[in-house]
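ENTRY TYPE: paired fold submission
RECORD: A
CONTENT: sequence, then structure tokens
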Amino acid sequence: MKRRSVLAGGVALGAGVATGPVPAWAAAEPGLSAGDVAAARALFAAGAYTRLGQVLPLLLAAAARSAEQGPAGAARAAGVWVLASQLAVKQGRTAFAGAYAKRAGTAATRSGDPVVLAAAARAAATPLRRTGRTDEALLLLHEARTHLLAGSRPTAAELEAAGLAALTAAYSAAQAHRPALARDFAAQAEEDTLRLARHPHTPGRPRELTAGQCALYGIGIHRHLGDVDTALAHARRLRPDRLPTAERRARAATDTARTLLDAGDAAGAFAQLCLVELAAPSEARRPSVRALTAEVAAVRPGLPGLDTYVRRTAPGVNAPAG
């Protein structure tokens, strides 16, 4: 019997992303297709984390088989494990994120594709830095970037992956309070962005590495470095409507909310939290964003609309009417 793909042509994405429904299974061991990985990535980009969590067991089982099916199969498997790691980060499950990232790295190595290797390195960086292993994260990202740019004429995909690795490294260095290294990596990312802009753009495929993406990262980088004014300057430069996905728009609003709260503007922070929920409701319910909501509620409990927002997104947080 011919194997069907895991998602058999798509999954119900929700969050405004249209695709076909999930059909009944007709094969015990469906294969993992590039379309499956793309559909799962679309779920993540839309902030449809509950739906992604529902289909993830099927994807992970298929990824384990796909990893043994040559370089292309290994690349698809790595893509699934990267997504699993990213979802675990969103859920605050650092140990799971690290385990998935490790499997992504193994599969990426089998694929031999430097772009896939860089994606796995970026996935690994977050659990590494969260467990005090920032130097390992930075080395991994540096090596991935070096590999991508080893040729005299890197492709657009390689430039984009290199720039994203540099942004992740800059953020990791900033969290470790290493300003010179953070700024150096951020500058490398901006240089890659300019180089990428000179390459023809593939229609229908939004670029991840853009000036807007650099500005988004700049908010968090400078906030972690203690430079709130520069972080807010990056936030003012940013056009959230030009960010390619709901997940990125929600991340921009989250980082801006944190920075505004650091600056003493709880009302502005709450306004940004409302934008988080508008962009991707699941983002507003993540553990770290719920904690941010609790901080705002503690500082300004009487803000109009805050009590309702708390009950909707962070039940259990105390937000008295003041």
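RECORD: B
CONTENT: sequence, then structure tokens
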Amino acid sequence: MSSRELWADVRLRAAWARQDWAAILQEYRRAAGLSQRGLEPLVGLPQPHISAIESGRRKVTSAELMARITEGLHVPDELTGAISRSTLSDWDPPAELRDRIAHAHSRGSTDLRTADWIGRVLAEHRRAEDEVGGRDLWPIVRSQVDSVTALIPQASGATADRLLLLAAEHAHWLSWVAWQEGKRGAALSWIDLAHGWAVDGGHVDMASWAQRVRAHYSLKIGDPVRALRTAEGARHGGALPLSPAAEAAAVHQVAMAAAACGERDLARRLADDSLALALAVPDEGERPGWLYWLDPLRARLQSADTAYACRDWAEAAAQFSDTLPDLAERFPRDHAHYRARFEDARARA
């Protein structure tokens, strides 16, 4: 495996984002299957020095040593400027991103290898949320947005549209992390960018998904009427039909908002529709990349969630009970959330 391939590893990238040099060496060795002695020729340090860094007995403080490790481990270009360009105090999207998108259809050509690589890495980030927190990865993904949007002014036609989708996927991820960190204004700014970029690029599924996320935010802050309106837009707002998986996600969000508005019969019918749509595409390859998780198990969990929102306690408890055992190993953080809902529903039934 090449060094570039190794840097797709999320735990390694998270260590880089923290600038934790001990963890960088340890995670690189884990990903590469190297001993400390195997790392010697890459970083130009003898094994005792590597051991001292990894154990914390020696700190990496000199610019010369940092540069030697960075070069020796072949850190990808989009990471080397990540820490200097973005910090956790810089949550809002900068104006230059919009400026780049404004030139999305200028004449030119661009090499898509960088975009392909960054798209793959983002997919790895999505799958690592139970293992590595989004806060650690924020500077990395923020840097990737810079790399993607910098390609757009040199692109046109289908290539520009493809890059707009990748930029939208990143903006959605950043919105979600900002929301989890309590940065609501920044979260809304990023999700609005995601929606606009998806619309500009003609990507109806991503545009719907961004609206669906906005509806979720409204529901979380206790505004179910706005959530219902926005979710309906996610379901019906596009000129072109949605894929079954994207429609399933949007319909589920309408159901949750309808339940919060007291329209429980409507919510129950929509829950059945959402489940049927999701079960129609059980294979991951048939779903948009950001809906990799919407397999039959998660589809049934969404149905249970709607039953819970409708206060159908016995039905919710039964559905959660059927799905929780399979969730524990694959999605431990989600398992804890749904386990709490199951116990509450069971107590109320």
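NOTES ON RECORD B: The mean pLDDT is 88. The chain has three domains: 3-75, 79-200, 203-307.
STATUS: closed
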